[in-house]
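stuck on this:

***
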Amino acid sequence: MALWRAYQRALAAHPWKVQVLTAGSLMGLGDIISQQLVERRGLQEHQRGRTLTMVSLGCGFVDYPDALITSYYLWPAVQLANFYLVPLHYRLAVVQCVAVIWNSYLSWKAHRL
């Protein structure tokens, strides 16, 4: 909880910087999950450059046509549940958790052979 409070304080003090770093971190985490759990590359075969690319893409938005269609199904449902069922102070955490899964999907989709 202390880490969460520190994050909230940083977000209040520097919203733009913290959101950019959060997006980059979540994109990187999504790529790590994709490489390790979906593609089962192992640590020796992990493509670090690919992870760094995904982290740097976290500063902007890059999508793929069929992923965009999937996005139209996923995010409205997530936000609908988030706004109606989740207390205000937990909404950001819920979206960030779903974003990690979404970023894993995007990484897999972008880098499959």
Notes: The chain has a mean pLDDT of 86. The chain has two domains: 1-61, 63-112. Residues 10 and 95 are 18 Å apart (CA to CA).
